[in-house]
Specification:
The structure is a single chain. The protein has 28 helices and 33 strands. Strands 2, 3, 5, 6, 9, 12, 14, 15 and 16 form a nine-stranded mixed β-sheet that branches. Helix 3 crosses helix 5 and helix 21 runs parallel beside helix 23. It has about 900 residues and is α+β, with helices and mostly antiparallel strands. A hairpin with a 2-residue loop joins strand 10 and strand 11. The chain is about 40% helix and about 20% strand. Pfam families: DUF3458, DUF3458_C, Peptidase_M1, Peptidase_M1_N. This is Aminopeptidase N. It is an enzyme of class 3 (hydrolase).
Length: about 900
């Protein structure tokens, strides 16, 4: 199943059905690194043995961009050849001869590694990133997740330049190196007590400082927690440490999973392709998900740090102790661990309303990112069947939809039943590389009387079938009999390679409301499990026609089609006991009005879109005395342009942008006094705390200020822009400061320019804050085509660096991926810019380039002239002869 890396050959598709166990096992790995940016020497001593269950064959070790100096077998020189990027050795000891020693000496050039995969240098320090296939850029190896070995690692380096030397596991030796030529050099030896696949290997070396905390687990074990950062950033690590401590405590309390190492380390670097990486005991993080204080980080940053720290720590068990047999099983660890970090963040919320807000935020990500992926050229099951480049399958389908599949399991067996299933999973598979089937079987076997156990074969279609199922709901009321019949029908559209879909298992949480908003008591259970293409649910003994509340809590990752009347939606918005469906009713009301205006060929800028009933409903939500501020902010935020586009068969991005902007402006003007009240009522929160209540109040105040500045743009009023500028200057935290700056930029007020200049001057030495500054401008509403020229100027800014993924994302991705109104230009200039950047980035960092390439996944839905221009841009990229496999797979699938 291993992909041959031959630059002269066409990309090879890897298929799940072709999986074969490795011909060799690696028992131990002893690595010695002499670290040098220009030429790092790696001595790799391994003990291997043949797999008796696989026919005898040559040993093929993966390698990329390595200089090979020596190969020894049992201490003797060995014949070998390089074939398709692999080191091939034949005539090795037979199985009956037992284990044998293999020694490989190579060199690599970390300073030239712009791909940020394998061993690389960032700001004078060494870092590694080995998932998915980066270890082969460090040494020749069986670089696949089902080969698990015990690692001993010795790091040797200049003590002045690299005083900190870290690797996985426990530090067993360290000190100065002896002998001639080793003056001012030192070493550190690390031993990992747990076997692991190569993708979990890590090393870090550099000038770093650490925040430390000693803790004692529930079982009485003592552990050292460390967060390493560059000197000068230590004051921004308290929240990350608190999040790590909370994660350790939560996993032990909720699932009985203790920390299994003497120490657990987090290291932050600014050059990183991903958010973070769960290397065993040595998590390497993007600084974005570690560094925070109230002056430099927003409430969203604080929440993201808590979530990502939790996610990577939870991988210690769900991903590390039990790992993937092959990369097709990626959701085994990622979907499960996303579910765990979502549950962690919800469990930290003291109030039910805060839990509901977190759930809504997670579903918004699913709908705006994963649902479009399910409907596009890169659609794939949660467990893919094939790939050309595995890096392209670290997707929202594998992660977020995978988490929803796990959530449905918990729904079907209950919270306690799920915990029992997790316990059985670890009892069976600790220390193994397994499959999604193994996980699902453990949850079912621990709950033999559950719906999951009964329906397991059918439930696993969630792993094998791509696409988002649609559930159509229709109600029929028989007044004479007092009977309400609800008919549910499921379907799923064809996706690439899958024309026909069999019925899914879909848990539908439901309830009925009376016309007065009161919850109705019925004899039907609150959870109905769909298994057939169509079901009928009959409710007897009702006095009047009810309002159905379906898919409560978003109980399944499906699209719900139901023809609600405005009156029914207003009832749900005002009264539903389920917060998710209350929010959903508001979104459906806004969506209905937006789609009507988008379909109106006579629509003109400034045209009225919102009716009095909708505006009054929004006013009631905004003024509601008992609703949580964070929940109000979610309800008052209109559906995004991306989400609106997904509801249409043919997409005119400029029409969508104009309609949504008209809706925002109308809502701003119609609720002017209410926004003023909301801002004044919520802007003061005392000493800064990033807790859900305070964060929600700041979010609502920020939305109100943005709306007030938008209303001022139409009226010519200068009071509220002036107040926003003053708020920007006086704010005691980054959330309030950035909300004020955003309000000025989004309303295109003349005060935006001096505010942006002042912001840059204040934070010119704070890289993560400058990322916000760049992103705000690249993602600002487009007026008369002004954004693209601004983006091009930003790329010429002294602080822009294309080689830094965070900075590239802050400008290029904010424009191409997150600003449809600015990107989709009638003159195709946005697409030309996109193609230029994809090609430019591909030569530096194919992973980042491939992510950018996906901005045109949905080009076939575009109206003309956008559709033809987008295809031409894709074809131009595809025609590039030396394109990476990463980008080629994306653009080829888009064009097919």
């Amino acid at each position: 199943m291993l992909q041959l890396r031959d630059a002269q050959s066409a990309p090879v598709a890897i298929r799940r059905e072709d999986y074969q166990a490795p011909a060799f096992w690696i028992d131990t790995v002893d690595l010695c690194f002499d670290l040098d940016p220009a030429k790092t020497r790696v001595l790799n001593k391994m003990v291997l043995r043949r797999n008796p269950d696989v026919p005898a064959q040559a040993l093929r070790l993966d390698g990329e961009e390595l200089n090979l100096a020596r190969v020894l077998v049992n201490g003797q020189g060995a014949s070998f050849r390089i074939e398709g990027g692999q080191l091939v050795l034949e005539n090795l000891p037979a199985a009956e001869e037992g284990p044998f020693a293999l020694e490989i000496f190579t060199t690599c050039a970390p300073a030239k590694n712009t791909k940020l995969m394998g061993l690389y240098v960032s700001n004078g320090s060494f870092f590694t990133q080995c998932e998915a296939e980066g270890f082969r850029r460090i040494t020749y190896f069986l670089d696949r997740p089902d080969v698990m070995a015990s690692y001993t690692v010795t790091l040797r380096a200049d003590k002045t330049a690299y005083p900190v030397l870290l690797s996985n596991g426990n530090l067993v030796e360290h000190g100065p190196l002896q002998g001639e030529g080793n003056e001012n050099r030192h070493y550190a030896k690390w031993v990992d007590p747990h076997k692991k696949p190569s993708y979990l290997f890590a090393l870090v070396a550099g000038k770093l400082v650490a925040r430390e905390q000693r803790i004692r687990s529930r079982l009485g074990g003592d552990h050292l927690l460390q967060v390493y950062v560059r000197p000068g950033d230590l004051d921004k690590t308290e929240h990350a440490m608190q999040s790590l401590m909370a994660s350790v405590a939560w996993d032990e309390a909720r699932f009985g999973l203790p920390l299994d190492l003497e120490r657990f380390m987090i290291v932050a670097t600014s050059d990183f392709n991903m958010g973070a990486m769960e290397n065993k005991g040595l998590n390497i993080f993007n600084t974005k998900y570690v560094l925070a204080n109230q002056a430099t980080a927003t409430d969203t940053d604080f929440a993201n740090i808590e979530s990502v720290v939790g996610h990577e720590y939870f991988h210690n068990w769900t991903g590390n102790r039990v790992t993937c047999r092959d990369w097709f099983q990626l959701s085994l660890k990622e979907g499960l661990t996303v579910f765990r970090d979502q549950e962690f963040s919800q469990d930290l919320c003291a109030e039910p309303s805060a839990r509901a807000v977190k759930r809504i935020e997670d579903v918004r990500v699913l709908r705006t990112a994963q649902f479009p992926e399910d409907a596009g050229p890169m659609a794939h099951p949660v467990r893919p069947d094939s790939y050309v480049e595995i890096n392209n399958f670290y997707t929202v389908t594998v992660y977020e939809k995978g988490a929803e599949v796990v959530r449905m399991m918990q729904t079907l067996v209950g919270r306690d039943g799920f915990a029992a299933g997790m316990k059985l999973y670890f009892e069976r598979h600790d220390g193994q590389a397994v499959t999604c089937d193994d996980f699902a079987q453990a949850i079912a076997d621990a709950n033999p009387g559950s719906e999951l156990a009964r329906l397991l074969p059918q439930f696993k279609r969630w792993y094998s079938q791509a696409g988002t199922p649609r559930v159509h709901a229709a109600g029929q009321w028989d007044a004479g009999a007092g009977r309400y019949t609800l008919t549910l029908t499921q379907s799923c559209a064809p996706t690439p390679g899958q024309a026909l879909k069999e019925p899914f298992v879909i848990p539908v949480a439901l309830g009925l409301l009376g016309a007065d908003g009161q919850e109705l008591q019925t004899q039907q259970p609150a959870l109905f499990v769909m298994t057939e293409a169509q079901h009928q649910i009959v409710f007897e003994g009702l006095a009047a026609e009810p309002v159905p509340s379906l898919l409560r809590g978003f109980s399944a990752p499906v699209i719900l089609d139901i023809d609600y009347s405005d009156a029914q939606l207003l009832t749900l918005l005002a009264h539903d006991s389920d917060p998710f469906n209350r929010w959903e009713a508001g979104q459906r009301l806004a969506l209905r009005r937006a789609l009507k205006a988008i379909g109106d060929d006579g629509f003109a800028d400034g045209q009225t879109v919102l009716d009095a009933a909708f505006i009054d409903a929004m006013r009631e939500v905004l003024r509601h005395p008992r609703l949580d501020a964070a929940f109000k902010e979610l309800v008052l935020t209109l559906p995004s342009e991306t989400y609106l586009a997904e509801q249409l068969d043919v997409v005119d991005p400029q029409r969508i942008h104009a309609v949504r902007e008209a809706m925002r402006a109308q809502l701003a003007e119609a609720l002017l006094e209410d926004w003023q009240w909301a801002y004044e009522e919520h802007r003061d929160n005392g000493a800064y705390q990033p807790d859900p209540r305070s964060s929600g109040r700041r979010a609502l105040a920020g939305l109100a200020l943005a709306q007030l500045c938008l209303a001022a743009r139409t009226s010519g009023d200068t009071v509220w822009p002036g107040k926003a500028y003053q708020r920007f200057k006086d704010a005691g935290n980054m959330t309030d400061r950035f909300n004020a700056l955003s309000a000025l930029v989004a309303s295109a007020h003349e005060l935006a320019a001096p505010a942006l200049q002042r912001f840059h001057a204040l934070f010119k030495d704070e890289a993560l804050v400058l990322d916000k500054w760049f992103a705000l401008q690249a993602g600002s509403p487009d007026r008369n085509g002004n954004v693209l020229p601004a983006v091009k100027q930003l790329m010429k800014h002294a602080d822009f660096n294309l080689r830094n993924p965070n900075r590239a994302r802050s400008v290029i991705f904010s424009y191409c991926n997150a600003n449809p109104g600015g990107f989709h230009r009638a003159d195709a200039a946005g697409y030309v810019f996109w193609a230029d950047r994809v090609i430019e980035l591909d030569a530096i960092n194919p992973q980042v380039a491939a992510r950018l390439a996906r901005a045109l996944d949905r080009w076939k839905k575009l109206a003309e002239p956008y559709r033809t221009a987008a295809r031409e841009a894709l074809a131009r990229v595809a025609a590039k002869a030396d394109l990476s496999n990463d980008v080629r797979e994306v653009v080829t699938r888009a064009l097919d």
